[in-house]
Description:
- The structure is a homodimer.
- Chain A is built from five helices and ten strands.
- The first copy, chain A, folds into two domains: 2-164, Nucleoside Triphosphate Pyrophosphohydrolase (Alpha-Beta Complex), CATH 3.90.79.10; 178-231, Orthogonal Bundle (Arc Repressor Mutant, subunit A).
- By secondary structure, the first copy, chain A, is an alpha+beta fold.
- Chain A is elongated.
- The N and C termini of chain A lie far apart (40 Å).
- The first copy, chain A, binds a DNA duplex through helix 5.
Amino acid sequence: MSTLNGVEYIDHIAYDSVVFGYAAGRLKILVMEYHNTGLFALPGGFIAMHEDLDEAVKNGLEARTGLKDIYLEQFHTFGKADRNKTDEMKKILEANEIHQKEFQWMLSRFISVGYYALINHELVTLHPDALSDSCTWYDINKLPKLIQDHASIVAKALQTLRDQIDRKLPLFALLGEKFTMQELQGLYEVILDEKLHRGTFQRKMLSMDILERHEKKYSGAANKAPYLYSFKKNWN
Amino acid sequence: MSTLNGVEYIDHIAYDSVVFGYAAGRLKILVMEYHNTGLFALPGGFIAMHEDLDEAVKNGLEARTGLKDIYLEQFHTFGKADRNKTDEMKKILEANEIHQKEFQWMLSRFISVGYYALINHELVTLHPDALSDSCTWYDINKLPKLIQDHASIVAKALQTLRDQIDRKLPLFALLGEKFTMQELQGLYEVILDEKLHRGTFQRKMLSMDILERHEKKYSGAANKAPYLYSFKKNWN
DNA sequence: CCAAAAGTGTTTTAGCTACACCCATGA
DNA sequence: TCATGGGTGTAGCTAAAACACTTTTGG
């Protein structure tokens, strides 16, 4: 058992989160950079001894983003014996001038449970943790090199999101409360990485009977104003 | 860190496996019964300090069934803080006359990674572990009461199997090497718990181009003999 | 030749795609 | 009135479902 800031954590278990956001037509995720190391990693954390796994992730993300009721989905648990490269973690601890024996447990083997989250990036204020000096949005196609197996964690999260997009459709969390059909389609396209047909997409969405139509959105441009939509109360 | 039979295991992490078999038209899973306790549980185990998570599960199942190359799929990780009821585990240790302090770690909180397996029950010779006196096939609809949250682990495994049945189709592992179309359909029906249309099912399977047709199977009954099929070498 | 079960051809249906047409909007 | 983009109608395609017909088997 290991202690950090007075809390007892379970040894050898961690979570890593792939936090998806959507801005300017781009799919992004949260990436943290550690002080003076040039090392980048997914936001993660440990599980307190008395805490549900799901709660630990929810609380950790709430601390980082300030958001409550984040949409979270567990997608895979990563347990390769060699997934923890101790030299990377050593570098991080040393850059933070942490040499004490009480933190050596962080250098040991960890099995990590992967979660992905969908959040509206406009509502977020980012808070890096004690070891990190930044917590920033990165375009999913322009990620920096990540430590350990975090690149494959991202890949698996994205694949899971693609597989589930038509089944659970929690995508309202990535958009504002109201959005145009074009914005929704753009989000689908950037997640699936393929162009969709405009008419077909609109019909499919409307036939699902999960969208509510609101007033039109006047852009000032010389063209027809699109309706705004939102998800219905009991959409799933 | 905790030791059992000279092997060092990671604290607080376990796996539980839902091993599916198919016999007499019924879907079954492996359930273990602990000595003199009346307590039933899924076959599970711990992860050695140097061992991949996937390998640990594979090795554990191989020891129990004698089978190599078992089809395994990780489906969820269970991490509720209250999922370990210590009184159940105490009962199991006491029934095995284990009171030593060195086994007390088994009473602590565990996060468990769930895997499901598909095996051909005809090829299996079952070996219960040291704490158990039996390892038996139970009809999925007639399970005994299981300890802890194992019932919900089974439910989630079954749901995952249903969701994946059309995508990965590793079902040959549940049947013999050769099988009739009716046997394959029966397996689908018992997994999905719904009747399927005979003609449609056959066409769908054949159109996938993953089955190979062999000689006919003469049953002695007064009707047309069905062909035997097997899965092609590179079926996926 | 009959009953039963297997294999396959045909029709119907549903969903998706692509194309096109009309509508709304502000320059 | 024109260019631009949004909403919807329609025809065509494909895959799946339902139905039915034919074939094979042993009594």
